[in-house]
Description:
alpha+beta, HIT family, subunit A, 5-stranded antiparallel β-sheet, two-stranded antiparallel ribbon, 3 helices, 23% helix
Amino acid sequence: MALVETSRSVYTDADMENCVFCRIIKREIPAKIEKETESLLVFSDISPKAPIHLLLVPKTHYRDITEADEKIWEEIRKVALDIAKEKNIKGFRLVHNAGEAAIVPHMHVHLLGGVKADREV
């Protein structure tokens, strides 16, 4: 059994085999992929909460912000800005849930476009 060590946790192959986002990254589960870089996979959320609702998911299995380094955050920022420009999104939100607030324990950032300042879609 292989172990993947991050700054705070150790993940086994079984942990990652059961992770829905790891399985999407490995193309075992279909997803509408919008963009891919060496470090990130960007795909549509299956339960969108905004007209544009994408997930920016690191290919490395980080649980959340507590494990991610500055490099992945910079990549997320760059890709989010690229997507906003490509899709002509005038305003958007980036949302990250950590710990027990996250439904999927694989770091991901929601890009929500087409929302107003008062939080209405």
